[in-house]
Amino acid sequence: MIPATHKQRGATLLISLILLLIITVLAISSMREVTLEERIVGNLRDQQASFNGAESALREGETRLAASIGPATTSANCAGQTVLCVRATPSTSIPYLDWSWWTTAANAIPYKGSTSNTTELNVASDPRWQTALLGFDLIDSSGRVEVTDPNLRSRGVGPYYYEVNASSQGRSSRTMTALQSVTVQRY
Fold first, then answer.
1. InterPro entries given for it (predicted)?
2. Handedness of CA 179, 50, 167, 116 (dihedral sign)
3. CB under 8 Å to 131, separation ≥6 — which residues?
4. Model's pTM, two decimal places?
């Protein structure tokens, strides 16, 4: 008898190679997707750190303003100020996203808060803040003022309106957040 010879055509090998190629493509696309997600999460973390730093500096400015016994002493700029920086007039155009402007001593003072250690805030450098006097007993939209007694007005008794500005970088210098609030202090 003549033994039967089986011819192998390689169909199994071809199917295996195609399946291996499909699995490889899926694995590569999954790795690219994971890398993209990591970058997104890193950027969100950086933005959150920047916001938290600016929020801390804003609250410090508001707290120091509220702790003053009377109307805060104003100055033309923040140079030499270490506790409270109240500008006599608000800046007409603050370059909110220009970090070099914020780090100039004449424009803002660094956040001190409960700690001056920026590693606890997870930011690249100290957040900065400044305040400005908007005015005493400003006229509201209907043309009225809060203090109508001329004697009290002449002594400066009543509401003082202040603008508080703060800015912070994130975990890296690529991200920056600037915040602003208006607060009223009554003396």
1. PilX_N_dom
2. positive
3. 61, 65, 72, 84, 85, 86, 87, 162, 163, 164, 165
4. 0.76
Q: How far is CA 69 from CA 9, 36, 64, 164, in A?
A: 95, 52, 10, 18
Convert the pLDDT of each residue in 81-99 to its tens digit: 888 889 988 888 888 889 9
Q: What is the pLDDT of residue 163?
A: 94
The model's pLDDT over 16-57, given as tens digits with 9 standing for 90+, comes to: 999 999 999 999 988 888 888 998 998 999 999 999 999 999
Q: Which of 167, 166, 172, 165 is nearest to 122 (CA)?
A: 172
Interacting residues of 125 by C-beta distance below 8 A, sequence separation 6+: 103, 118, 169, 173
pLDDT of 7 above 80: no
To which residue do tokens 């250690």 refer?
Answer: 117
29-39 burial code (b ≥16 CB/10 A, e <16): eeeeeeeeeee
